[in-house]
Amino acid sequence: MKKESKAVIFLYGTIPGRACLKVCTAPIVSKAAAVLLSSRASRLIIPGFVKNNGIDMDRYEVPEGGYSSFNDFFIRKLKGGYYADTDSPLVSPCDGLLSIKKIVKDSIINTKHSRYSIAELLGDSELAARYSDGMALIFRLTPSHYHRYCYCAGGRITGQRRIDGVLHCVRPVAVRSQKVYTRNTREYTVITNHSLGVIVQMEVGAMLVGKISNSDECRPGYAALTGTEKGYFEYGGSTIIILLEKRHRISRKILERTPIDGEIPVTIGEALTEA
Description:
The protein folds into two domains: 6-74, no CATH class; 96-266, no CATH class. It has an eight-stranded antiparallel β-sheet with strand order 10-6-7-8-12-4-1-13, with no helix packed on it. Strands 5-11-9 form a three-stranded antiparallel β-sheet, with no helix packed on it. The protein is 23% helix and 24% strand. By secondary structure, it is an alpha+beta fold. It is built from ten helices and 13 strands.
């Protein structure tokens, strides 16, 4: 397990650090970081970032002449794309670390450290009521992960919403002390699937940009296709949350993996449930 950075521990684990959080999580700070990380000068950061995060660059496309900026590198594409198991009812929307949570009758997600109201998460109590006794799948992406994501399931897009907020870090130390998922800027898509029912796929931004960039087709009336790229995050460890109306049987292949601090490693496009 990778240890929390000293900066994150300071911000979320100390009194002086928490006093700085209001400034650090403000959208204007992330906007300033976005300008810097999209500049040509930011390319100088790339080699050190690759080394520190153990990124295997043989997996990724590199433009002729190199990346134009750090953010250009951060949203890099896989060589040859990725494989999506379209025979599965539900696939992983991203590379990341998965937590599987039950949604209890009072529409609260019980995590190890925090409690989240589904109505507060969605900003819609009527939609939230669908997920009573359902399931939440939480995918945490670290800076070293591939930051493009796909549709977890196919179906008609029947809703799309953006909720503006602050931009907290999404590492465990932050989740322990802040209601990150219900405070951070987030976007979600509602997909009606013939076998899974009404699904919510939510992208949650994070500290230092964490910009959510969804495709133009990601809006009501369009048809989502399982495994098709939905969008990407710019710099910042980020999170994707899937809400399901019922509790489904997660693939044994997934459950038998060795967890990392309670989170299960998954890859984009792989089957999450038994076909």
